């Protein structure tokens, strides 16, 4: 096939040009994202039920919803959490479940439950989670001094949101910090009492004067008109003019009986940018959109907003496209440095500029054609797939070097140019195909991991497979074609012999080879003994998900753990920001309830999240340490979590699950165990170092107890009492004004006095038409109660959490403790997920080794020789672990990817070495010049070492040098890639020595008794 294609250079050239044209077209249509569009198998239901206790929300709302959702297809776990006024249900599905269908099914079940849920309950919000829900950027909208906040809210919601949504590729624009204008009615109670009226007279007047007649029409001759009552109100002035009638008096304008005015509605949440209150807009992209282009359009739009709306300040924060740019920059630097170092190494080793030129053409060609495979496979350009391309580029250089070196060697042996190109390719073709297959055999099984990790590895595996197979196409067809064109006018004498540098290197290799082979058995045993020593480093190294990235931003999440309102919450956050003034670059905070549609976390007026961006990591550490000290000093009861600000990777991989959580249920009462009973039990818990789970956390509450005897004695109906309490302490909605899409509530003004004063100063009317102070019928007390009610599939549970790994070995003791107190126990936590991941990795590793063995056995036509390649892998792993340990790195996702890449390159070198030894043994065996089999074996091993010395050294040196700049670089991309680089450099350093010396030793040991055919 190679001979046939090389005889048709014009046709082959046209085919490659056509492929490149189609690849360019595909590249323009490929979506550009930060992460692959993964459907995370989770759905979250959020419930908002104002003025309701956790027990009420659990019993009346969450429990019926949970029971109806138990039959969902693919449901793996279900957990709910009821708090004051809010509740959440988190559904976890098996990975691979169709989340589109599950989302529809959940909504259908919620709709069927509508009649079973409280009538005043807003419909539960169903949130589906995927990687595109992570916002690209946050746009701060801050009203300038003197600007009406309600007008800015309307501007943001009705204008800015729509202008951003009109950008092609935007899927959702989410807003937090909105505040609406309301009309408040504050009755003059003295005037009402003097006229014998009550607040109900005012409420009735407003409802009567704000009626409409939808759908009613009147006929006027041949015409028909829709009827509209002229009494409908639109403004506070209209409400003031409404007549209010009382007993025995004429109608009085409502404006004389109550204060009517616009006010800002009571907010349950705020957003701060620095010290300024404002709104924040989060922008989400469509799966098929290009993030880098979208960011340019969004930036341009914000500049236009600044010009069009001078009464508002704008800023862009938490731009997630920096990760994508880091990935693109890494790919560009890999391509640039790879080409530069390949040129330099080839020139040093071979002293000819034409060979680096060939590689310079083949690298971008292979990369471009790989994007055509992306398009066919439906893969987007994202950080994961780009990292796969960057890794594959190193192997692509290796293939190119091996092919070019072999063709050059054939030319130096005296073969004619065309024949040298053909035989140079044919001789290494099977070995290179095997090396690509073995690399994929090591890497591709990782896509069968469950969960998000497997889905992410899919994109990387496709990227690596694409560039490797394209590299074979280029190496077998384009490289020999380019070689033939560039060297057509030159004879074999033009090709320079080995450079002086390489001659010295070869002499050193021969000397070392002689020393190693002089004591073969001893050296072989020593190398084998190093394997467990090297691998033992992996047991003492720390493990983590992502490598530690030098970040300049951090987040503080706080639960004040006190019954404070959202205004006090905002005041405290402002004081903290003021304490750090001048130390941060940007600060923003989400306080209280979040209005984001896609917010799936806890919502409470007592919680806040403070984001701070500093000039550098040192200032960040100092600033957050100061902040932590302030919190510990001023707010002892607050629960504070300080961590680096999460990027898109963190938000996808991070888990807030404890290491180990022990859950128990009281199967008799099916209710939480009371605190007074549980406290002495927990004192006897057999494992130390635990913290209370959400179901054990307590908070103080005011309890109103109604004196039913007095109410009966004075003839006060219960409905009168509850209505009075609702009006006095809640936000009592009288009616609302609708004007197109704008809705303005009409509210009875709330009383901002102390609740005891309110009870003392307000009265109820009995059956004898006498008034009695409200405090006569209500007894006030304080009590502690559970802050949350937690449940799973089988009902209400309480829990304690452990962070010490020693606790995982005491599960049986904990079960015995629960049983002794009549409790049913179960266990959950990250520990079990980690154990499952380890089991999966071990089984996948076993499958990868088996695939590796099968491919090599087919390549070498031997059951023994594949073991040589497999034995080289632990030495390479040991070298990588040693460098990671010496540099203080951890075992993380990027280090693991580096290990896989390094093993792929090591496998290539070992395969080529063994393949060459086999061919030379066959060649010298057929010649049979009176030599013994031992002599033939030694000669084949020595000559194979010389033949493959140059490509082995060049591939290793070019890969190491191409990656070396990352070690000395800074920034997000370098921080992510550094563990990968350490793995590859360490593994290849040891792996090169392994290919040069361990492979011939192992070959001699395993095959010295094999008969040469």
UniProtKB/TrEMBL annotation:
GO terms for molecular function: xenobiotic transmembrane transporter activity. The keyword Ubl conjugation does not apply. Gene3D superfamilies: Multidrug efflux transporter AcrB pore domain, Multidrug efflux transporter AcrB pore domain like, Multidrug efflux transporter AcrB TolC docking domain, DN and DC subdomains, Multidrug efflux transporter AcrB transmembrane domain. GO terms for cellular component: plasma membrane. The chain crosses the membrane at residues 331-350, 357-377, 383-404, 425-449, 461-483, 521-541, 841-860, 867-887, 893-912, 949-968, 980-1006. PANTHER family: PTHR32063, SWARMING MOTILITY PROTEIN SWRC (PTHR32063:SF0). This is Cation transporter. It comes from Echinicola pacifica. The lineage of its organism: Bacteria, Pseudomonadati, Bacteroidota, Cytophagia, Cytophagales.
